[in-house]
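Good morning,

Both structures are done.
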Amino acid sequence: MSSAAPSVTVSPPAGRRPLAVGVLAAISSSHLVNDMMQSLILALYPIFKGQFNLSFAQIGLITLTYQLTASLFQPLIGLRTDRRPAPYSLPIGMTSTLCGLLLLAYAPNFGTVLAAAMLVGIGSAIFHPESSRIARLASGGRHGLSQSVFQLGGNAGTAIGPLLAAAVIAPNGQRSVAWFGGAALIGICLLTYVGRWYQQHLRASAARPAPVAAANEARLPPRTVAWVIVVLLVLIFSKYFYIAGLSSYYTFYLMQKFQVSVQSAQLHLFGFLAASAAGTLIGGPVGDRIGRKPVIWASILGVAPFALILPYANLEWTTLLTLIIGFVLSSAFSAILVYAQELMPHRIGTVSGLFFGFAFGMGGLGAAVLGVLADHTSILWVYKVISFLPLLGMVAAFLPRSPASPGN
C-alpha cells in the first residue's frame, strides 16, 4: 500500500493544505456512531424508569454520570495530546463505548446502568478532543466547515438514537441494545483508518520546517483571551443546560402534557434532534464567511422568543417550536469552538477538550438538577423555568472580533 495519506483530497486556494475529504467523512461518520450510542441511553430512560422504578432525580443521575465523566476527562486528555499526540487513541475510546453499550444491554440494576454510562463517558472523553483536532487538520483552512461537518455526524447520531430505540428497543426490550455493537465495530475500523492518516500527517509535519509562530498567534492580549473564554463558557452553559432540560425530559413532557405514547414521544424527540443535526451544518460555513460572532449571537439569543412560548403551546405548536429551537440553537457550537481555537491556535486539544468537556458537564449537571426540580414540582414547571436560559445569549455582545474572523 502506498505511503501517501489514505484520503480523497480537494484542491484548496493557493497557500492552503487540501481538504482531506475521506478523513473528514470518516471522522464525522465515527462521530455519528459515538453519539448514536450515547443517545441510546437517553432513549432508554422510559424503559429504565419503569423497569427499575426510578425517580426523575435518578434519571438525571444517569445523564450526569456519563456526561460528568466525559466532562472531567476531556480537558485532561486534550492537554495530554497537545503535548504528546496519540493517533490510535481514538479506536481505544470507541472500544470503551462498545463495552459500555454491552453492559447497558444486560444491566440488572440501577448501579450497573451507572457503570455502563461511565464507560460510555470515558469513550467520549477520549474521542472528542483528538477527533476535533483531526477535523481541523483535515479542513484545508476551512475550519468552520470542517467543524460543522464533524458536528453534523454527532448530531445526526444523537437524532438517530431515539428513532432506532422506537423501532428496535421499544418492541424488543433492553437486551436488543447489544445489537448496536456492530455499529461500534464499524466505528473502530473507521477510527483506525483515521489514526493511520493522523500518524502519517505527524511524520510529514515533523519533516517540514516549523512555521513562523507569529503568523498564527492570537492577536488579543492574554487577559482579553481569558475574559473571552469565560464569555464563551457562559454561552455554552446557556445552550447545554437548556438542551439538557429539553431533551432529557422531552418524552416525559409530551406523555404527561399531551398523553402521547412512548413510541410517539420518541419520534418527536427524533424530530427535535434531527432538526438540531440539520442546523449544525449552518454555523461553521456561515461563520467562515461572515465571522463567528454574528452566528453565536443569532443562534443562542435568537431562540429566546420560541423558548419562552414553548411551555404554553399545544402539541402541534410544540412540535414546530422544538424543530425551530433545535435548528437555530445547534448552529452555535461549531462557531463557538472555532472562535476559541482561533484565540489559542497552539492549544487545539486543550481548547477542544475544555469546551466539549464543559458542554458535557453542563448537560449532565442540568439533567440532574432539573430532575430533582421535576420530582419536587413537575416536568411542566421545569419547561417554564428553562425557557429563560437562552436570554443569556445577550453576553455575546461582549465578544470582540475573532483573530481569524472576516467579520465582527
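Second structure follows.
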Amino acid sequence: MNVVKPIVEELNLLDEQRKEQETKISQLNAEIAGYSEARERELPLVQEVESKVKELREMIAVFNGNQMSLRTSIRNLKEKNGQMDEKISKAEFDLVQSVQENANIRSKIVQSPDKIQVHISSY
C-alpha cells in the first residue's frame, strides 16, 4: 500500500495539472474565437481601407506624372523666356541704332528755308 500511495498521489497531481491545462486551453480557445470574430467583423473595414490606400496610391502616381509634366512645361517656358529676353535685347539694341541713324539723318537735313535757298543757288 505504501508503494501504491505515492503513485496514486502522483496520478492525482497529474490529473489536477491536466484539468488546469484543459481549463487554460479552453480559455485560450475562447480568446482565439473572440479574436476570430473580431477579425471577421473588422474585415470589411480593412478591405475598405486597403481599397482607399490603393486609390490614393493611384492618385499619387497621377499627381507625380502631372508634376513631371509641369516641370517640363516650366523648363520649356524658361527656355522661351530666355529666347524672348534675347529678342528683346536685340530689339532694344536695334532701336538704339535706329535712333542714332535717325539723329544722323536729321542732322544732315537743313533746318531753315534760307539754308535751302543757299544750297539750291549754289547749284
